[in-house]
């Protein structure tokens, strides 16, 4: 137990070093954006507060990363992606004009493009763990929700766009009522591809260059892809044979 506690303490210290570096870079970037009148002070401060919460939650969940002793490059990249997502969430604390819509779209595209790189790094440096997989998944899920909220905030798409970002959370909630939905799912390239499609659909829909009809159609395509993917997984789990009793 003492050895495990010492390992966890060392792991948390390592993670906090990475979190400090990413946080410092984020603070500088937000400060420059605020000085350049791209962001308001409220938007920047909201992003920093959300990042602090992300860092605390990350440190608190690190027990699932054991027996790994280092936070690792893969989780550091996921943390950086998380910093991008909370920055986008901070945009919601103020007005979102055409310039900020472009910034949101580009930041979203970069965050999506980096998805998968963290998994490759984890395999490359043998630092894969349940924590890393869950961390990556939660950042992806929150990104989809934030992109949906940003789209709704621009007024070009209705509240229905939130169904894209809420899909995973609704799926988890449904598992409380239907235990079959809590069973593990096999790895699926389809699931990963749809995550990219829905994210890019919302990021492109944020670009103010698109007419309103094209914006709605692009977001709707992301929603259809989301419904198809989750529907496929739900049918698979409901049709799967129940596990044999002990």
How would you explain this protein's 3D organization?
The protein contains 9 helices and no strands. The longest helix has 34 residues, at 2-35. With 246 residues, it is mainly alpha-helical. The mean pLDDT is 91. It has helices at 2-35, 41-60, 72-91, 98-113, 117-124, 130-154, 162-177, 189-205, 212-239. It has one domain (2-239).
Summarize the entry for a quick read.
With 246 residues, the protein is mainly α.
What's the Cα radius of gyration? Answer: 19 Å
Instruction: Give the CA-CA distance, first to last residue.
Output: 30 Å
Average residue-wise pLDDT: 91
Strand/helix succession: HHHHHHHHH
Q: Any idea how many domains?
A: 1
Strand content: under 5%
Report the major sheet: none
* Morphology call: flat
- Continuous helix count: 9
| SS-based class | mainly alpha
How many extended strands? 0
């Amino acid at each position: 137990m003492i050895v495990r506690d010492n390992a966890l303490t060392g792991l948390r210290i390592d993670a906090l070093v990475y979190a400090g570096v990413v946080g410092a870079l984020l603070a500088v970037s937000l400060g420059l954006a605020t000085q350049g009148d791209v962001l308001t002070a409220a938007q920047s401060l909201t992003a920093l507060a959300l990042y602090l919460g992300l860092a605390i939650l990350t440190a608190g969940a690190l027990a699932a990363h054991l027996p790994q002793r280092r936070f690792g490059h893969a989780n550091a990249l996921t943390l950086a992606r998380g910093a991008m997502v909370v920055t986008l969430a901070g945009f919601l604390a103020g007005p979102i004009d055409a310039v900020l819509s472009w910034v949101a779209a580009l930041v979203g595209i970069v965050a999506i493009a980096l998805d998968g790189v963290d998994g490759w790094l984890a395999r490359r440096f043998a630092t894969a763990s349940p924590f890393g997989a869950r961390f990556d998944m939660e950042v992806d899920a929150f990104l989809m929700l934030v992109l949906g909220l940003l789209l709704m905030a621009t007024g070009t798409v209705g509240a229905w766009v939130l169904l894209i970002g809420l899909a995973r959370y609704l799926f988890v909630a449904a598992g409380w009522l239907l235990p079959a939905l809590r069973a593990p799912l096999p790895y699926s390239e389809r699931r990963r591809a749809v995550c990219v499609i829905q994210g890019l659909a919302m990021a492109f829909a944020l670009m103010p260059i698109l007419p309103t009809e094209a914006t709605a159609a692009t977001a709707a395509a992301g929603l259809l892809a989301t419904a198809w993917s989750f529907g496929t997984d739900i049918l698979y789990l409901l049709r799967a044979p129940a596990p044999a009793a002990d």
